[in-house]
Backbone:
C-alpha cells in the first residue's frame, strides 16, 4: 500500500478527533463565535473573488 493515503487518513482522523474534543469541552458561546468567524472568512473570500473578477 502506498504511503500517501495512509498519511492523509491519519491526518483526517487526528483533525476529526481534535474537532470532537473541541466541541465537547468548549462552551456554546465560544462555538457561536467560531461559527461567526468562519462565516466571515467565507464571505470575505467570496467578496475578494468577486472584487477581483468584476471591479479590478
Residues:
Amino acid at each position: 500500500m502506498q504511503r500517501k493515503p495512509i498519511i492523509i487518513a491519519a491526518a483526517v482522523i487526528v483533525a476529526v478527533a481534535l474537532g470532537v474534543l473541541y466541541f465537547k469541552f468548549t462552551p456554546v458561546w465560544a462555538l457561536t463565535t467560531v461559527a461567526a468567524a468562519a462565516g466571515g472568512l467565507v464571505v470575505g473570500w467570496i467578496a475578494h473573488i468577486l472584487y477581483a473578477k468584476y471591479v479590478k
Remarks:
- DSSP finds two helices and no strands in the chain.
- Residues 3-54 form one domain.
- The longest helix spans residues 28-54.
- The mean pLDDT is 90.
